[in-house]
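Design job #97: recover the sequence.
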C-alpha cells in the first residue's frame, strides 16, 4: 500500500474515503487510534493508504475533487 494523504482533518479523511469507496478502491487509514497518545486533541496525523496498483487512479480522484493540496508527494 502507498500513502495517498496524511492529515489530522477527519472531514478530509472521510470525504476522500467516500470518494475511494464509490470508485471501488480499497483503502486503509493508518494511525487512526493514535489519538490516545495525544489526548484526543488531533495533533497526530492519520495516513490514508491505497493499493499501489490503484494509486494513480486514487490521486486523480482526489485532484478532481479539488483536494490536490492534500496529496502526498510522489517519490
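Job complete. Output follows.
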Amino acid at each position: 500500500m502507498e500513502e495517498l494523504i496524511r492529515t489530522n482533518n477527519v472531514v478530509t479523511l472521510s470525504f476522500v474515503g467516500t470518494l475511494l469507496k464509490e470508485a471501488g478502491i480499497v483503502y486503509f487509514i493508518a494511525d487512526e487510534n493514535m489519538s490516545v497518545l495525544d489526548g484526543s486533541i488531533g495533533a497526530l496525523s492519520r495516513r490514508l493508504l491505497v493499493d499501489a496498483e490503484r494509486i494513480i487512479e486514487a490521486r486523480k480522484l482526489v485532484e478532481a475533487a479539488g483536494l490536490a493540496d492534500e496529496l502526498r508527494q510522489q517519490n
